[in-house]
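Example for tutorial group B:
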């Protein structure tokens, strides 16, 4: 099984309703906007999508709405969970819907687990989806998960599960690590989380990027990846640097709300909190200075 996902993939935010559920109408609206503005694909139900703050039923509802309205071949869903059965059910659901991939965090509550334990976790998910296989992508984010997919572990998983293992998203920020994973096999599609690597991806070093800030800079990311446009990449990188100065998800959602002219997009699931008014104003203003009149922003 060869991964068909590549290029600019936004880790899509999930709009939130007043009673702390996923706002599915706004979610689909935003996903369509991203696909129309440079994204080659979308990662839904990921960290930026606040998936671990949603229930199993809510995460499945997000997947259902995406599958019913968006191109299946361009959607991967985060299906990792602390509970093994939850991860299995989410991955089976993504497979049944026909999504292009399942992005799996390692089991993230117990720390100091050995490789045998992580292999057992992945093996259960692979075995449960044998009849309806889906591309599996590992999600390396040790700063939050507390458990890493080391190169040795990825090599073992690749040797054990072969073509079922399509690739890896790396949110460690360590490009040497990402390059080491990519060197394990040409069949592994490696996606760093920073769009600054897009020219390297265009050259073949990586499959692309899966980026939170692609929610706001996807059109420039697309020009960098598809056209080799360094000036566009510079703009994308400056925008990422701005939203990365403070809490990333609240910052991105504040900018998305301004870009879309809809304050509801800024809502967050507890325990995340919105930016204060001064920080939000300054962030949107500074983003506007970079974007200029290329896109409409309201401060």
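The residue assignment follows.
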């Amino acid at each position: 099984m060869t991964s068909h996902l590549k290029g600019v993939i936004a880790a899509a935010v999930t709009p939130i309703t007043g009673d702390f559920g996923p706002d599915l109408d706004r979610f689909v609206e935003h996903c369509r906007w991203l696909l129309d503005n440079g994204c080659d694909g979308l990662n839904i139900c990921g960290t930026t999508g606040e998936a671990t703050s949603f229930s199993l039923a809510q995460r499945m509802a997000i997947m259902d709405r995406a599958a019913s309205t968006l191109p299946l071949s361009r959607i991967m869903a985060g299906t990792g969970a602390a509970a093994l059965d939850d991860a299995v059910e989410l991955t089976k659901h993504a497979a049944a819907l026909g999504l292009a991939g399942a992005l799996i965090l390692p089991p993230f509550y117990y720390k100091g687990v050995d490789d045998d334990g992580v292999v057992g976790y992945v093996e259960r998910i692979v075995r449960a989806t044998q009849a309806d296989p889906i591309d599996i992508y590992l999600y390396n984010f040790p700063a939050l998960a507390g458990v890493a997919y080391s190169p040795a572990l990825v090599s073992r998983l690749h040797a054990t599960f072969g073509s079922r293992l399509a690739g890896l998203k790396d949110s460690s920020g360590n490009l040497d690590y990402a390059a080491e994973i990519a060197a394990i096999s040409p069949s592994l599609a490696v996606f760093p989380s920073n769009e600054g690597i897009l020219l390297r991806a265009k050259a073949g070093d990586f499959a692309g990027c899966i980026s939170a800030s692609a929610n706001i800079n996807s059109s420039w990311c697309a020009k960098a990846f598809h056209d080799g446009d360094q000036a566009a990449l510079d703009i994308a990188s400056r925008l990422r640097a701005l939203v990365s100065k403070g809490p990333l998800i609240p910052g991105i959602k504040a900018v998305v709300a301004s870009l879309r002219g809809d304050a509801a997009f800024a809502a967050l699931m507890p325990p995340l909190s919105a930016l204060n008014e001064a920080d939000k104003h300054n962030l949107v203003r500074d983003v506007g200075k970079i974007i200029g009149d290329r896109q409409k922003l309201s401060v």
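The mean pLDDT is 95. Compare this with the pattern of hydrophobic and polar residues in the output above.
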